[in-house]
Amino acid sequence: MQLARRLRRCVETCLWDLWPPTMSRKRKTEPSSFRIGRYVRALNREERRLEEQVAADSCHLHRFESARHSQNGEDGIIAEIFGRIGRTNRSFIEIGASDGVENCTAALVEAGWRGVWIEGDPAKVGNARQVVGTRPVTIAESFVDRASILPVLAKAGAPTRPDLLVIDIDGNDYWVWETLGRRYPARVVVIEYNAVVGPRLNWVMPYDKTHHWDGTRRHGAGLAALASLGSSLDYTLVGCDSHGVNAFFVVSSEAERFSRRSVQGHYVGPRYGLPFGHPRYHFESFEANPVPEDECRLVKLRVASPERKEVRPAGLVYIHATVENGTSVSIGSSRLTPVDLAGWWVDKDNQRLGGEPCRSTQYWRAEPGRAAHLVGRVAAPSVPGRYTLVFGLVQETVRWFDNPAARTVVGDWIVG
Known about the structure:
Elements: H1 2-18, H2 33-56, H3 74-85, E1 91-95, H4 106-110, E2 114-119, H5 122-132, E3 137-141, H6 149-156, E4 164-167, H7 173-180, E5 188-192, H8 223-232, E6 235-240, E7 246-251, H9 263-266, E8 299-303, E9 310-311, E10 316-325, E11 331-332, E12 339-346, E13 358-359, E14 365-366, E15 371-379, E16 385-395, E17 399-400, E18 407-415
Parallel strand pairs: 1-2, 1-4, 2-3, 4-5, 9-18
Antiparallel strand pairs: 5-7, 6-7, 8-10, 10-15, 11-14, 12-13, 12-16, 16-17, 16-18
Protein backbone atom coordinates (compact mmCIF):
# COMPACT_ATOMS: atom_id res chain seq x y z
CA MET A 1 0.00 0.00 0.00
CA GLN A 2 2.75 2.46 0.94
CA LEU A 3 4.75 1.48 -2.14
CA ALA A 4 1.77 2.23 -4.39
CA ARG A 5 1.24 5.59 -2.67
CA ARG A 6 4.88 6.52 -3.15
CA LEU A 7 4.88 5.44 -6.78
CA ARG A 8 1.79 7.51 -7.56
CA ARG A 9 3.29 10.49 -5.75
CA CYS A 10 6.53 10.25 -7.74
CA VAL A 11 4.75 9.90 -11.10
CA GLU A 12 2.32 12.78 -10.54
CA THR A 13 5.04 15.01 -9.12
CA CYS A 14 7.13 14.44 -12.25
CA LEU A 15 4.17 15.21 -14.51
CA TRP A 16 3.46 18.50 -12.74
CA ASP A 17 7.13 19.50 -12.77
CA LEU A 18 7.54 18.74 -16.46
CA TRP A 19 4.58 20.86 -17.63
CA PRO A 20 4.49 23.73 -17.18
CA PRO A 21 8.10 24.36 -16.08
CA THR A 22 7.65 25.73 -12.58
CA MET A 23 11.31 26.51 -11.97
CA SER A 24 11.73 29.02 -14.79
CA ARG A 25 12.75 32.45 -13.60
CA LYS A 26 11.82 34.25 -16.82
CA ARG A 27 9.11 36.84 -16.53
CA LYS A 28 6.27 36.20 -18.96
CA THR A 29 3.94 38.70 -20.58
CA GLU A 30 1.05 40.12 -18.59
CA PRO A 31 -2.06 37.89 -18.49
CA SER A 32 -4.43 38.46 -21.38
CA SER A 33 -7.97 39.78 -21.08
CA PHE A 34 -9.30 36.33 -21.98
CA ARG A 35 -7.23 34.58 -19.32
CA ILE A 36 -8.13 37.04 -16.56
CA GLY A 37 -11.81 36.92 -17.54
CA ARG A 38 -11.82 33.13 -17.42
CA TYR A 39 -10.02 33.15 -14.07
CA VAL A 40 -12.50 35.61 -12.55
CA ARG A 41 -15.43 33.47 -13.68
CA ALA A 42 -13.78 30.40 -12.12
CA LEU A 43 -13.24 32.25 -8.83
CA ASN A 44 -16.88 33.33 -8.70
CA ARG A 45 -18.03 29.78 -9.48
CA GLU A 46 -15.83 28.55 -6.63
CA GLU A 47 -17.37 31.13 -4.31
CA ARG A 48 -20.88 29.96 -5.26
CA ARG A 49 -19.89 26.31 -4.74
CA LEU A 50 -18.58 27.07 -1.27
CA GLU A 51 -21.64 29.18 -0.50
CA GLU A 52 -23.95 26.28 -1.40
CA GLN A 53 -21.79 23.82 0.49
CA VAL A 54 -21.80 25.93 3.67
CA ALA A 55 -25.54 26.62 3.42
CA ALA A 56 -26.26 22.88 3.20
CA ASP A 57 -23.98 21.89 6.10
CA SER A 58 -24.55 23.34 9.57
CA CYS A 59 -21.25 21.79 10.69
CA HIS A 60 -19.13 23.24 7.90
CA LEU A 61 -15.91 24.65 9.34
CA HIS A 62 -16.13 27.83 7.26
CA ARG A 63 -19.03 28.89 9.48
CA PHE A 64 -16.61 29.23 12.38
CA GLU A 65 -13.72 31.10 10.79
CA SER A 66 -12.44 34.05 12.79
CA ALA A 67 -9.06 35.66 13.21
CA ARG A 68 -7.60 36.99 16.42
CA HIS A 69 -3.97 36.25 15.61
CA SER A 70 -4.27 33.97 12.59
CA GLN A 71 -4.13 35.12 8.98
CA ASN A 72 -6.95 33.14 7.35
CA GLY A 73 -9.54 32.50 10.06
CA GLU A 74 -7.68 29.52 11.53
CA ASP A 75 -8.30 30.68 15.13
CA GLY A 76 -12.02 30.11 14.85
CA ILE A 77 -11.69 26.78 13.05
CA ILE A 78 -9.21 25.43 15.60
CA ALA A 79 -11.46 26.51 18.47
CA GLU A 80 -14.43 24.77 16.84
CA ILE A 81 -12.48 21.55 16.23
CA PHE A 82 -11.47 21.31 19.88
CA GLY A 83 -14.96 22.31 20.91
CA ARG A 84 -16.12 19.09 19.22
CA ILE A 85 -13.39 16.66 20.27
CA GLY A 86 -12.38 18.23 23.59
CA ARG A 87 -8.91 19.07 24.90
CA THR A 88 -6.49 16.83 26.78
CA ASN A 89 -3.19 18.44 27.79
CA ARG A 90 -3.76 21.81 26.02
CA SER A 91 -0.33 21.66 24.41
CA PHE A 92 0.92 22.46 20.92
CA ILE A 93 3.85 22.52 18.53
CA GLU A 94 3.96 25.16 15.80
CA ILE A 95 6.71 24.93 13.20
CA GLY A 96 7.03 28.21 11.35
CA ALA A 97 5.56 30.33 14.15
CA SER A 98 6.64 33.69 12.70
CA ASP A 99 6.78 36.64 15.10
CA GLY A 100 4.34 35.31 17.69
CA VAL A 101 1.77 37.95 16.76
CA GLU A 102 0.31 36.34 13.63
CA ASN A 103 0.21 32.54 13.74
CA CYS A 104 -2.17 29.68 14.52
CA THR A 105 -1.41 29.25 18.23
CA ALA A 106 -0.96 32.76 19.66
CA ALA A 107 -4.65 32.81 20.57
CA LEU A 108 -4.20 29.49 22.39
CA VAL A 109 -1.23 30.88 24.32
CA GLU A 110 -3.46 33.71 25.52
CA ALA A 111 -6.00 31.08 26.59
CA GLY A 112 -3.42 29.31 28.79
CA TRP A 113 -2.05 26.62 26.46
CA ARG A 114 1.62 25.64 26.56
CA GLY A 115 3.92 24.48 23.83
CA VAL A 116 6.82 25.07 21.44
CA TRP A 117 7.30 27.58 18.68
CA ILE A 118 9.98 26.98 16.05
CA GLU A 119 11.05 29.82 13.77
CA GLY A 120 14.13 30.33 11.62
CA ASP A 121 14.14 34.12 11.27
CA PRO A 122 16.16 35.69 14.14
CA ALA A 123 14.23 38.98 14.03
CA LYS A 124 10.90 37.16 14.26
CA VAL A 125 12.22 34.98 17.08
CA GLY A 126 13.23 38.08 19.03
CA ASN A 127 9.77 39.58 18.61
CA ALA A 128 8.10 36.30 19.57
CA ARG A 129 10.08 36.17 22.82
CA GLN A 130 8.88 39.65 23.72
CA VAL A 131 5.30 38.65 22.93
CA VAL A 132 5.44 35.48 25.02
CA GLY A 133 7.05 36.98 28.10
CA THR A 134 6.69 34.55 30.99
CA ARG A 135 4.02 32.38 29.41
CA PRO A 136 4.81 28.62 29.10
CA VAL A 137 6.08 28.68 25.51
CA THR A 138 9.54 27.53 24.48
CA ILE A 139 10.85 29.28 21.36
CA ALA A 140 13.49 27.53 19.27
CA GLU A 141 15.39 29.44 16.60
CA SER A 142 16.01 26.97 13.78
CA PHE A 143 15.36 26.32 10.09
CA VAL A 144 14.23 22.72 10.25
CA ASP A 145 14.19 19.81 7.82
CA ARG A 146 13.27 16.16 8.25
CA ALA A 147 16.72 15.37 9.65
CA SER A 148 16.91 18.17 12.20
CA ILE A 149 13.32 18.45 13.37
CA LEU A 150 13.44 15.63 15.94
CA PRO A 151 16.60 16.88 17.74
CA VAL A 152 15.22 20.43 17.78
CA LEU A 153 11.94 19.31 19.36
CA ALA A 154 13.73 17.08 21.86
CA LYS A 155 16.01 19.92 22.95
CA ALA A 156 13.00 22.24 23.30
CA GLY A 157 11.19 19.73 25.49
CA ALA A 158 8.22 19.58 23.13
CA PRO A 159 5.15 17.59 24.26
CA THR A 160 5.32 14.12 22.70
CA ARG A 161 1.53 13.83 22.32
CA PRO A 162 0.34 17.39 21.74
CA ASP A 163 -3.25 18.34 21.15
CA LEU A 164 -2.20 20.42 18.13
CA LEU A 165 0.59 20.33 15.56
CA VAL A 166 0.94 23.22 13.07
CA ILE A 167 3.36 23.04 10.12
CA ASP A 168 3.92 26.10 7.93
CA ILE A 169 7.47 26.21 6.56
CA ASP A 170 6.80 26.95 2.88
CA GLY A 171 8.71 24.00 1.52
CA ASN A 172 9.39 20.68 3.15
CA ASP A 173 6.09 20.60 5.07
CA TYR A 174 5.12 17.15 3.75
CA TRP A 175 8.45 15.59 4.67
CA VAL A 176 8.49 17.09 8.14
CA TRP A 177 4.98 15.78 8.85
CA GLU A 178 5.98 12.36 7.55
CA THR A 179 8.87 12.39 10.04
CA LEU A 180 6.79 13.62 12.98
CA GLY A 181 3.63 11.63 12.30
CA ARG A 182 4.35 8.71 14.59
CA ARG A 183 6.97 10.30 16.85
CA TYR A 184 4.80 13.27 17.87
CA PRO A 185 1.22 12.08 17.24
CA ALA A 186 -0.97 15.15 17.66
CA ARG A 187 -4.74 14.88 17.83
CA VAL A 188 -5.15 17.75 15.34
CA VAL A 189 -2.80 18.76 12.54
CA VAL A 190 -2.94 22.05 10.63
CA ILE A 191 -0.66 22.11 7.60
CA GLU A 192 -0.31 24.48 4.66
CA TYR A 193 -1.13 22.94 1.29
CA ASN A 194 -0.29 24.08 -2.23
CA ALA A 195 -3.71 24.93 -3.65
CA VAL A 196 -2.31 25.77 -7.10
CA VAL A 197 -1.73 22.03 -7.68
CA GLY A 198 -5.47 21.32 -7.58
CA PRO A 199 -7.39 18.64 -5.67
CA ARG A 200 -6.34 15.53 -7.58
CA LEU A 201 -2.61 15.51 -8.26
CA ASN A 202 -0.42 13.86 -5.62
CA TRP A 203 2.28 16.49 -6.11
CA VAL A 204 4.99 16.92 -3.50
CA MET A 205 7.98 19.24 -3.74
CA PRO A 206 11.02 16.92 -3.87
CA TYR A 207 12.86 17.01 -0.58
CA ASP A 208 15.51 19.72 -0.40
CA LYS A 209 17.03 20.51 2.99
CA THR A 210 18.42 23.82 1.65
CA HIS A 211 15.06 25.03 0.31
CA HIS A 212 13.94 28.56 1.09
CA TRP A 213 10.66 29.69 -0.42
CA ASP A 214 11.24 32.09 -3.31
CA GLY A 215 7.68 33.40 -3.51
CA THR A 216 6.61 31.12 -6.36
CA ARG A 217 4.25 28.15 -6.43
CA ARG A 218 7.08 25.66 -5.91
CA HIS A 219 6.57 24.71 -2.27
CA GLY A 220 4.90 22.16 -0.06
CA ALA A 221 2.48 19.59 -1.38
CA GLY A 222 -0.95 19.35 -2.97
CA LEU A 223 -4.01 18.51 -0.88
CA ALA A 224 -4.36 15.01 -2.36
CA ALA A 225 -0.79 14.11 -1.37
CA LEU A 226 -1.28 15.42 2.17
CA ALA A 227 -4.59 13.58 2.51
CA SER A 228 -2.88 10.37 1.41
CA LEU A 229 -0.05 10.88 3.89
CA GLY A 230 -2.56 11.73 6.62
CA SER A 231 -4.49 8.55 5.93
CA SER A 232 -1.30 6.49 6.26
CA LEU A 233 -0.72 8.15 9.66
CA ASP A 234 -4.35 7.51 10.72
CA TYR A 235 -5.66 11.06 10.21
CA THR A 236 -8.78 12.24 8.42
CA LEU A 237 -9.03 15.43 6.41
CA VAL A 238 -11.90 17.48 7.89
CA GLY A 239 -11.63 20.77 6.01
CA CYS A 240 -9.63 23.64 4.52
CA ASP A 241 -9.84 27.34 5.25
CA SER A 242 -11.79 29.52 2.83
CA HIS A 243 -8.64 31.13 1.37
CA GLY A 244 -7.16 27.83 0.18
CA VAL A 245 -4.12 27.99 2.48
CA ASN A 246 -4.41 25.47 5.33
CA ALA A 247 -5.76 21.93 5.61
CA PHE A 248 -7.11 20.57 8.89
CA PHE A 249 -6.71 16.95 9.95
CA VAL A 250 -8.10 15.13 12.98
CA VAL A 251 -6.98 11.74 14.26
CA SER A 252 -9.37 9.30 12.60
CA SER A 253 -10.74 7.86 15.84
CA GLU A 254 -12.23 11.30 16.65
CA ALA A 255 -13.29 12.39 13.17
CA GLU A 256 -16.92 11.23 13.32
CA ARG A 257 -18.01 14.67 14.52
CA PHE A 258 -17.06 16.23 11.18
CA SER A 259 -18.65 16.24 7.75
CA ARG A 260 -17.30 13.48 5.54
CA ARG A 261 -16.36 14.63 2.06
CA SER A 262 -13.85 13.57 -0.54
CA VAL A 263 -10.59 15.44 -1.01
CA GLN A 264 -12.27 17.24 -3.93
CA GLY A 265 -15.20 18.12 -1.67
CA HIS A 266 -12.93 19.67 0.96
CA TYR A 267 -10.61 21.38 -1.50
CA VAL A 268 -10.58 25.17 -1.76
CA GLY A 269 -8.68 26.72 -4.66
CA PRO A 270 -6.05 29.46 -4.37
CA ARG A 271 -7.98 32.56 -3.31
CA TYR A 272 -4.86 34.52 -2.45
CA GLY A 273 -1.95 36.04 -4.36
CA LEU A 274 -3.90 37.59 -7.23
CA PRO A 275 -3.94 36.48 -9.94
CA PHE A 276 -3.68 32.66 -9.97
CA GLY A 277 -2.35 32.16 -6.43
CA HIS A 278 1.41 32.06 -5.97
CA PRO A 279 3.05 32.90 -9.32
CA ARG A 280 4.90 30.45 -11.53
CA TYR A 281 7.54 33.02 -12.37
CA HIS A 282 9.30 35.80 -10.55
CA PHE A 283 7.97 39.25 -11.22
CA GLU A 284 10.66 41.75 -12.22
CA SER A 285 10.46 44.71 -9.85
CA PHE A 286 10.70 48.13 -11.43
CA GLU A 287 11.09 51.75 -10.48
CA ALA A 288 8.55 54.34 -11.61
CA ASN A 289 7.94 57.98 -10.93
CA PRO A 290 4.55 59.05 -9.61
CA VAL A 291 2.00 59.91 -12.27
CA PRO A 292 2.27 63.67 -12.93
CA GLU A 293 -0.73 65.49 -11.52
CA ASP A 294 -1.75 66.90 -14.90
CA GLU A 295 -1.75 63.36 -16.38
CA CYS A 296 -3.91 61.63 -13.76
CA ARG A 297 -6.96 62.05 -16.00
CA LEU A 298 -5.21 59.82 -18.55
CA VAL A 299 -5.43 56.75 -16.28
CA LYS A 300 -8.67 54.91 -17.00
CA LEU A 301 -10.37 51.98 -15.30
CA ARG A 302 -12.93 49.67 -16.90
CA VAL A 303 -14.70 46.82 -15.08
CA ALA A 304 -16.50 43.98 -16.84
CA SER A 305 -20.06 43.51 -15.63
CA PRO A 306 -20.29 40.38 -13.40
CA GLU A 307 -22.58 37.51 -14.39
CA ARG A 308 -24.64 37.99 -11.25
CA LYS A 309 -24.90 40.55 -8.48
CA GLU A 310 -25.89 38.49 -5.48
CA VAL A 311 -23.50 37.41 -2.73
CA ARG A 312 -23.73 35.98 0.76
CA PRO A 313 -22.85 38.19 3.76
CA ALA A 314 -19.04 38.42 4.04
CA GLY A 315 -18.71 36.45 0.81
CA LEU A 316 -16.06 37.30 -1.79
CA VAL A 317 -16.75 39.11 -5.04
CA TYR A 318 -14.27 38.96 -7.93
CA ILE A 319 -14.26 41.27 -10.95
CA HIS A 320 -12.25 41.64 -14.16
CA ALA A 321 -10.71 45.13 -14.40
CA THR A 322 -8.73 46.77 -17.18
CA VAL A 323 -6.39 49.69 -16.49
CA GLU A 324 -5.45 51.85 -19.47
CA ASN A 325 -2.28 53.91 -19.05
CA GLY A 326 -2.33 57.04 -21.19
CA THR A 327 0.38 58.78 -19.15
CA SER A 328 4.07 59.29 -19.87
CA VAL A 329 5.25 56.95 -17.06
CA SER A 330 4.94 53.26 -16.30
CA ILE A 331 2.37 52.30 -13.67
CA GLY A 332 1.80 49.11 -11.70
CA SER A 333 3.34 47.43 -8.68
CA SER A 334 6.51 49.49 -8.66
CA ARG A 335 8.75 49.52 -5.58
CA LEU A 336 8.00 52.90 -4.04
CA THR A 337 4.71 54.15 -5.52
CA PRO A 338 2.63 51.13 -6.55
CA VAL A 339 -0.77 51.63 -8.13
CA ASP A 340 -3.40 49.42 -6.50
CA LEU A 341 -6.93 48.48 -7.47
CA ALA A 342 -9.28 48.99 -4.52
CA GLY A 343 -12.94 48.24 -3.88
CA TRP A 344 -15.52 49.45 -1.39
CA TRP A 345 -19.23 49.28 -0.65
CA VAL A 346 -21.71 52.13 -0.42
CA ASP A 347 -25.01 51.82 1.46
CA LYS A 348 -28.43 53.19 0.48
CA ASP A 349 -27.58 56.53 2.12
CA ASN A 350 -24.52 56.83 -0.10
CA GLN A 351 -22.19 56.26 2.87
CA ARG A 352 -19.02 54.23 2.35
CA LEU A 353 -18.78 51.20 4.65
CA GLY A 354 -15.79 50.34 6.78
CA GLY A 355 -12.38 51.96 6.87
CA GLU A 356 -9.84 51.94 4.08
CA PRO A 357 -11.01 50.42 0.78
CA CYS A 358 -9.91 46.82 0.24
CA ARG A 359 -6.81 46.57 -1.97
CA SER A 360 -6.56 43.83 -4.60
CA THR A 361 -2.77 43.74 -4.47
CA GLN A 362 -1.09 41.96 -7.38
CA TYR A 363 2.00 42.16 -9.58
CA TRP A 364 1.42 44.07 -12.79
CA ARG A 365 2.87 46.69 -15.09
CA ALA A 366 1.42 48.90 -17.82
CA GLU A 367 3.81 50.88 -19.98
CA PRO A 368 2.74 54.26 -21.41
CA GLY A 369 0.03 53.71 -23.99
CA ARG A 370 -0.62 50.12 -22.86
CA ALA A 371 -3.28 48.37 -20.76
CA ALA A 372 -3.15 45.73 -18.03
CA HIS A 373 -5.84 43.28 -16.95
CA LEU A 374 -6.33 42.84 -13.21
CA VAL A 375 -8.45 40.88 -10.75
CA GLY A 376 -10.48 42.84 -8.23
CA ARG A 377 -11.54 41.22 -4.98
CA VAL A 378 -13.65 42.55 -2.14
CA ALA A 379 -15.53 40.98 0.75
CA ALA A 380 -19.25 41.71 0.95
CA PRO A 381 -20.78 43.49 3.96
CA SER A 382 -21.70 41.18 6.83
CA VAL A 383 -25.22 42.65 7.16
CA PRO A 384 -27.76 41.61 4.49
CA GLY A 385 -29.17 44.36 2.33
CA ARG A 386 -28.75 46.22 -0.95
CA TYR A 387 -25.40 47.91 -1.56
CA THR A 388 -23.44 49.54 -4.37
CA LEU A 389 -19.97 48.24 -5.24
CA VAL A 390 -17.29 50.69 -6.42
CA PHE A 391 -13.74 50.15 -7.64
CA GLY A 392 -11.04 52.80 -8.02
CA LEU A 393 -7.28 53.27 -8.33
CA VAL A 394 -4.78 54.61 -5.83
CA GLN A 395 -1.07 55.38 -6.17
CA GLU A 396 0.07 54.50 -2.68
CA THR A 397 1.61 57.34 -0.64
CA VAL A 398 0.76 59.76 -3.48
CA ARG A 399 -2.94 60.15 -4.35
CA TRP A 400 -6.23 58.58 -5.28
CA PHE A 401 -7.13 58.93 -8.93
CA ASP A 402 -10.26 61.03 -8.49
CA ASN A 403 -11.05 61.52 -12.16
CA PRO A 404 -14.34 59.82 -13.12
CA ALA A 405 -12.60 57.64 -15.72
CA ALA A 406 -10.52 55.96 -12.97
CA ARG A 407 -13.50 55.09 -10.75
CA THR A 408 -16.16 52.57 -11.75
CA VAL A 409 -19.50 51.75 -10.14
CA VAL A 410 -20.14 48.02 -10.50
CA GLY A 411 -23.85 48.37 -9.83
CA ASP A 412 -26.25 47.49 -7.04
CA TRP A 413 -25.80 44.17 -5.25
CA ILE A 414 -28.03 42.08 -3.04
CA VAL A 415 -26.18 40.78 0.01
CA GLY A 416 -27.90 37.84 1.69
